[in-house]
Specification:
The chain is of the alpha/beta class. It has twelve helices and 15 strands.
Length: about 450
């Protein structure tokens, strides 16, 4: 993947605070995902109260009419797209107000199919590179390839000032028009059913997709995974305009245009960190029945993407001309089933290794479950919950990883019969639930040899 982008979630998670963007190393990802976003909810409302410059009836296009953004710096990326596998994707040029821009597009026959414009996260949003086809772990799969696997055409556009495209990056302003141009182009393709076109995005890409929804494109649905209400919350250092200019800020902030969205739009985020407080801020402001807010229990900013995208892709592929509907229960069930499948697969691998080492499955064994956290208080709460569930928990140990960063570890013991899969799956499920509840990390289990 293209890891040059500043603050891409897949390479360096970002925790957003008021006016700054704090970067964490991969070794601190668990800390970043604790959601140090407490000020955002209050900040979003302050923006609305202090600067009532936009009428509630204005959609994004009408509010921007006659206004020209003034860039304080001019940024371009001249490096074009990496050549994709010819049987998977092709590089196409789509027309925009600034000229032709580039995108990846699914290779397929001419049979009309549903399609989606997918806007990846990071800075700048869009412009997915080799991650569009390279293998990615399901706990952080930002490729949207699950749509392609469901026979849905996927377009990954790059926008102005990126991938050698004309213009300069504008930070959630002119890029909205580029998204709309990508949608218009996609509808003209022979292999696309123009009545079954969707828009989706993740993180900064979701924020841009939400702004595009406020411009009222004629599409079937919009899926926004972890957007924010105002890009100013990403930090002024990644902005290209005068952040002291209220008008410039407001015309980039989707929270001011929620009431004008006319397309079914789904805003999704995991409850474990990420931009949950932003989902809550927009939900508190919105009375628009076209917008659906779906927090996902047990999920974070990354691991909800694959299972929920798979659910959406399955529904798109089978919806035909029926209205697309996505419910909270469907999303939560899809995520829970995926997590159970991952956990049970890991359990089977552990059992296979134990069988190979000639551990006796016919008698109860002392199973040891390993859980760690950077935060001692959270681990204490996890230990207490494990004890309430019948585990015997040892003392909290203070350790250091290979980079010298400290962490805390507990081991929880439980007698189990290895030939009873229901028992094995049941105890690991309890441990996994406690891990997520207290934002710890469950590292698996083993048995003590007698």
């Amino acid at each position: 993947m293209d890891y040059k982008r500043i603050s891409t979630w897949e390479s360096c998670p970002v925790t957003f605070q008021m006016s700054q963007c704090s970067l964490y190393s991969p070794g601190q990802k668990d800390k970043a995902l604790t959601g140090e976003l407490g000020n955002i909810l209050r900040f979003s409302f302050i923006i609305c109260l202090l600067f009532p410059l936009i009428q509630a009836s204005d959609n994004l296009n009408s509010a921007r009419k006659g206004f020209k953004t003034q860039l304080t710096r001019q940024v371009r990326d001249e490096q074009g797209f990496t050549a994709p596998p010819e049987s998977v994707l092709e590089i196409v040029a789509y027309p925009t107000e600034l000229g032709m821009m580039s995108a990846y597009l699914t290779v397929s026959d001419d049979t009309p199919k549903p399609a989606i414009v997918w806007v990846t996260g990071g800075f700048p949003p869009g412009g997915m590179d080799s991650g569009a086809w390279e293998p990615m772990p399901t706990e952080n799969d930002q490729s949207a390839k699950i749509f392609r696997l469901n026979n849905i055409i996927v377009m990954y556009p790059a926008f102005r000032g990126d991938k050698g495209n004309p213009g300069h990056q504008e930070g959630f302003y002119g890029e909205v028009q580029d998204v709309l141009s990508a949608i218009s182009y996609l509808k003209t393709r022979k292999n696309v059913d123009p009545d079954r076109v969707y828009l989706g995005g993740h993180s900064t890409g979701a924020t841009l997709a939400l702004l595009a929804a406020a411009a009222q494109p004629q599409i079937r649905g919009v899926f926004c995974f972890g957007p924010v209400s105002d890009p100013l919350l990403y930090g002024s250092e990644v902005a290209f305009h005068d952040t002291e200019n209220d008008r410039e800020n407001q015309l980039r902030a989707p929270i001011h245009f929620l009431s004008t969205i006319q397309t079914p739009t789904y805003i999704l985020e995991g409850v474990l960190g990420g931009n949950l407080s932003e989902l809550q801020a927009m939900q508190a402001k919105s009375t628009n029945p076209m917008i659906h807010f779906i927090p996902v229990n047990g999920a974070n900013h990354f691991d909800l993407l694959f299972p929920v995208s798979r659910l959406i892709a399955n529904k798109i592929a089978t919806s035909n001309q029926n209205e697309f509907v996505l419910t909270q229960n469907e999303v939560q069930s899809a995520f829970d089933r995926h997590q159970d499948a991952i956990r049970e697969s890991d359990d089977l691998s552990t059992l296979s290794a134990l069988r190979h080492n000639e551990v006796d499955f016919s008698v109860p064994q002392d199973a040891v479950f390993y859980i760690w956290s950077r935060e001692a208080d959270q681990l204490k709460q996890a230990a207490s919950s494990l004890e309430s569930s019948g585990f015997s928990v040892g003392h909290i140990e203070s350790r250091q990883d290979a980079e010298g960063i400290g962490f805390f570890l507990i081991t929880a013991h439980r007698q189990i019969r290895l030939d009873n899969l229901g028992m094995v799956f049941g105890y690991t499920k309890i441990t996994k639930q406690i891990e997520r509840r207290f934002n710890a990390t469950y590292e698996g289990w083993s048995v003590t040899r007698k």
